[in-house]
Design goal:
Strand order of the largest sheet of chain B: 1-2-3-4-6-9
CATH superfamily of chain B: 2-enoyl-CoA Hydratase, Chain A, domain 1
Radius of gyration of chain B: 17 Å
Number of domains of chain A: 2
Distance between the termini of chain A: 63 Å
Number of helices of chain A: 10
Largest sheet of chain A: 6 strands, mixed
Structural class of chain A: alpha/beta
Shape of chain B: globular
Number of strands of chain A: 9
CATH class of chain B: Alpha Beta
Strand order of the largest sheet of chain A: 1-2-3-4-6-9
Oligomer: heterodimer
Strand content of chain B: 15-25%
CATH topology of chain B: 2-enoyl-CoA Hydratase, Chain A, domain 1
Strand content of chain A: 15-25%
CATH topology of the largest domain in chain A: 2-enoyl-CoA Hydratase, Chain A, domain 1
């Protein structure tokens, strides 16, 4: 949580940057890896895009098993923690601004689940990806399996979740798990630059309309999504073109 | 379409015969749907009412085995005539028109005969949305594509966002839509938005060849298979 600086929030112009800060492996001590409410305030302060990256060499090697073993002793508390973790990732997944994962080094388990909740994934040439949960008799518990199915198809998702093997950046690109592979130590900068390029000349309301439309088209039947597009378009058109109607000749 | 709407449309249509926005011709069982307002082939309310008529009255009753969509003149289409198309919305008469426009595009998307977009020159905004609802997009080397709506503080609202996601993936869709920049034919090919790129002069011939390859028992094969056959055809034996 933020209070002990395990995550850092920064702003670069209108781009918000959240860095996991528990180096070197960036083990995640809690499923709710950063305070959801604090993140919500940060997003609502008017940022146009969010980058999630890390300090140090790796995005994250996943959950801290030592801490997890300890918290499992109180099963109800553990369930609550998992629920809060899922809630945080759902919040990230549904943000009405683009969210870019900047992946350095390893991206395992819960780390990969965070990356999968983002819209765009940038990794480095030596990045490695895995869902190692199965090796401990577990599975990704924060929606990672479902998100991977959506992104890369059922066959790929089953292979990663049931096989538990590591895959390279190149392989991840081929499987559409990452969108861009950049040089070592360049993911954070690349992601922030991309976020600026996407949003620099755009008003927040337009960015939000586009992202909301994308979310709708991913989730809703086509008729409903199109109806909502039409409503958003109408609102924007009134604001952009005014309701002064030129005479019809 | 209700009767009075049809009447109104027919009167309008007949009155505008010389200035029609779309021509529909059938030759050798191929329906040629051509935008006929060059050079820009802008889409306005008249264009969409003609398209609505075609997709609800004419095409369903015809017996064409394929449709080729193209623009007359140098360009496919420079997109919507915003002033005209948003008149109804801005005067508070609702969004029915937008949804009806989208339904016309979707009609083409869901046909069980091949629908091929032949894209020369500019194909942006709603022009690209129309092309993305065709089943195949063949581009000339000089084609220029894009969804520039966000640059006007608007969004593509005729299914362009949905089609972008499915054709090029979410990450690229976000980038192309938010940046709103245009891209050329070869970039469109890399983005999987264009299916093939040919010299301008060969384009229509290639589309007709694709009809020959695909129309018989259409959708028995995957799209990729048809395109491979088309490219095999292009290389001399």
């Amino acid at each position: 949580m933020d209070d002990n600086q395990k995550t850092i929030l920064n702003k670069e112009r209108d781009v918000g940057v959240l860095l996991l800060n528990n180096p070197p492996e960036n083990y995640l001590e809690q499923p709710e890896f950063t305070g959801t409410e604090k993140l919500r305030d940060f997003v609502n302060s008017g940022i146009k895009a969010l980058v999630i990256g890390s300090t140090g060499r790796h995005l994250s090697a996943g959950a801290d098993l030592k801490i997890m073993r300890n918290s499992i002793k109180n099963i109800n508390r553990f369930k609550n923690e998992m629920t809060e973790g899922s809630r945080l990732l759902n919040y990230v997944d549904e943000l009405e601004i683009p969210v870019i994962a900047a992946i350095s080094g390893v991206c395992f388990g819960a780390g990969l689940e965070i990356a999968l909740a983002c819209d765009i994934r940038i990794c480095e040439e030596d990045s490695m990806f895995a869902f190692p949960e199965i090796n401990h008799g577990l599975f990704p518990g924060l929606g990672g399996t479902q998100r991977l199915v959506r992104l890369a198809g059922r066959a790929v998702a089953l292979e990663l979740v049931l096989g538990g093997d590591m895959i390279s950046a190149e392989k991840a690109k081929e499987l559409h798990i990452v969108d861009e592979v950049v040089h070592k130590k360049k993911a954070n900068d690349f992601a922030v630059e991309l976020a600026k390029k996407l949003t620099d000349n755009r008003q927040l309301k337009v960015i939000k309309a586009v992202m909301l439309s994308i979310r709708n088209h991913e989730k809703l039947p086509v008729e409903e999504a199109i109806k909502k597009d039409a409503e958003m378009f109408a609102q924007l058109a009134k604001e952009a073109l005014g309701d002064e109607i030129p005479a019809n000749d | 379409m209700l009767n009075w709407q049809k009447k109104r449309w027919e009167t309008k249509y007949l009155r505008m015969t010389e200035k029609r926005k779309i021509s529909w011709e059938v030759r050798k069982r191929i329906g040629y749907l051509t935008l006929t307002d060059p050079p820009e082939n802008r889409m306005d309310t008249l264009f969409f009412s003609e398209l609505h008529m075609l997709t609800t009255e004419v095409i369903p009753q015809g017996k064409v085995s394929a449709i080729i969509v193209s623009g007359s003149g140098r360009h496919f289409s420079a997109g919507a005539d915003l002033d005209d198309l948003t008149r109804e919305i801005r005067s508070g008469k609702g969004n029915g028109l937008l949804i009806s426009n989208y339904d016309s595009f979707r009609f083409l998307d869901e046909l069980d005969i091949p629908v091929i977009a032949v894209i020369r020159g500019v194909c942006i905004g709603s022009g690209l949305e129309l092309a993305m609802h065709c089943h195949f997009r063949l581009c000339s080397t000089d084609a220029l594509l894009g969804l520039p709506e966000t640059g006007f503080a608007l969004i593509p609202a005729a299914g362009g966002i949905r089609k972008m996601i499915s054709q090029t993936g979410k990450a690229k869709a976000i980038e192309l839509i938010l940046k709103g920049t245009n891209f050329v034919a070869n970039e469109a090919l890399d983005l999987r938005i264009a299916d093939a790129v040919f010299p301008k002069k060969e384009l229509m011939e290639k589309a007709e060849k694709l009809v020959e390859i695909a129309a018989d028992g259409y959708r028995r094969y995957r799209k990729k298979e048809y395109l491979e056959r088309l490219s095999r055809h292009a290389t001399p034996a």
